[in-house]
Amino acid sequence: MEHLMHNYYEAAAVILFGIGFMNLLLQSNLIKKFIGLNIMDTAVYLFLAAKGFIYGRVAPIVTSGEAVIERFVNPVPSGLVLTGIVVSVSVTAFSLALIIRLYKVYHTFDMDEIMKLAREEEKREY
Amino acid sequence: MAKLPKGGLSRFVAWVNGEEVVDDLKHGHHKEKKTKAKYLPHLTMEQRLLGYRILGVLICSIFVLILLATVSKLPTFGSPNNPASNEVVERYIESGIEETGAINLVAGMILDYRAFDTFGESNVLFLAVISVVMLLKRDRNNFDEDDEKILNEDIDLDDEDDNIILKRFTMIIFPLITLYGVYVILNGHLSPGGGFSGGAIIGAGLILFDTAFGQSAVRKFFNFKRFTYISVGCLLTYCACKSYSFFTGANHLENIIPKGIPGNILSGGLILPLNICVGLIVACTMYGFYALFTRGEI
Amino acid sequence: MEISEIIQILLLVFLIISALAVSFYKNLMQAILIFMGYSTIMSIIWLFLESPDLAITEAAVGAGVTSVLFFLTLKKTHMLEGTRDNG
């Protein structure tokens, strides 16, 4: 419990991941599902960036002095998260385009109603 | 949903393809009625839905609690003896300036030591734009009467509207935004920023210009052909710069462009051209998303 | 506890409250506005973790382009109130 209080960044990241996951799973509105997916993504990036932080050191930009390892924060998680942010925006844009096309056919955002209408359509053409 | 014979192999093929196999129509309906409510048949649909949601929240909370228990066993936050700082980080920081020539160690890492990751990410952006073009571009197959009417009305209304504040403001601010974006891209290896952020800034500037002056004004200098040429050209340039390692092995050849003095803009070998490529791709993609979502064409 | 730690904990609590609020609002436009605020606070937290590259990128991409795309989806599907499309 004490240790959890000390690792407050990772704990907050995990709680945010849980909230985003619950949104993705249980909301019936399609747009809120993808807001939940975005929240999950940013929670994972927060966790990764928190693994690279070291107390008392600065960002990895060498302005003066030598490039000794004791002066800088770990730069590797930063590079991973940079790629991840761009992939997250690509996935969001593509899924929103899919939502627009779904709306044009079924005229609703509700996932349950779309499944019901799709099943009725299948039964009718059967 | 074709009716398939009862043989085992054809059933397996149908299952792989996602088709249902029904032996007899009447028999199928009869079976459906029988298996309607196998578990707890006395509950109504609303109660089932409520039970499903409560069970979902419960299982997700247990999942979060398990993850929190894992977090309490992780190494301490911010300690210098983390297992994450190993000999890889030592090599990147201590030989970073000599081998890559970049002062911003993160930019030097993602564009020199790990250039393939950035290449894959540019590919993902390009793929997303192509998919959105396939879904939303208006042409012969994707034609909808009501939407066309609303779009034309929107265009007429925007032409009549006289947004003086927005137009004057954009005339002052848009060159500044573009200049700032170009500055962030060019100084990617000297200060925080780089290709992605600079490209997003330029894309946001183009979105502002589109909002103020209409899409016909943007199409004078940025139409679909140029968008294709810029995206494909920059992606192929990135590929040509960095995929010779497939043929020469991991110990790559010397850089064609000399490294220069760290601290100048013209330094860092291939990092500056790659930053420009990535920045252009990201700018085109961000504006492309906006244009496809509002008007259906770039 | 120094002041900087107290501010960081406050920002994290604000993040969690925003994420909870997004799931409970029925009006879609308000939910997307709260999501925009969530993204901006995230960008400030990156600065506390000494990664300025991530802060600039998240501010430009998360609070900029993603939220604009969400609003455009609402406009395309005629869900925005007060505009010509819906009342």
Automatic annotation (TrEMBL), chain A:
Tell me where it resides.
Membrane
InterPro entries, from UniProt?
Answer: CPA3_antiporter_subunitC, NUOK/Mnh_C1-like
Name the residues that span the membrane.
Answer: 6-26, 38-58, 78-103
**Principal localization?**
membrane
Q: Which domain of life is it from?
A: Bacteria
The protein's UniProt keywords, in alphabetical order, are: Membrane, Transmembrane, Transmembrane helix
Under the cellular component aspect of Gene Ontology, which terms does the record hold? Answer: membrane
Pfam families in alphabetical order: Oxidored_q2 (PF00420)
Lipid bilayer topology: Multi-pass membrane protein
What does the similarity note say?
A: Belongs to the CPA3 antiporters (TC 2.A.63) subunit C family.
Question: What protein is this chain from?
Answer: Multisubunit sodium/proton antiporter MrpC subunit
Cite the source lineage.
Answer: Bacteria, Bacillati, Bacillota, Erysipelotrichia, Erysipelotrichales
UniProtKB/TrEMBL annotation, chain C:
Q: Does the keyword tRNA processing apply?
A: no
Could you tell me which residue ranges the MrpA C-terminal/MbhD domain spans? 13-77
Coiled-coil zones:
none
GO CC list: plasma membrane
For this UniProt record, give its keywords in alphabetical order, as a comma-separated list. Cell membrane, Membrane, Transmembrane, Transmembrane helix
Question: Where is the protein localized?
Answer: Cell membrane
Membrane topology (UniProt): Multi-pass membrane protein
Q: Which residues cross the membrane?
A: 6-25, 32-49, 55-74
Please identify the protein, giving its name as recorded: Putative MnhB-related membrane protein
The scientific name of the source species is Dielma fastidiosa
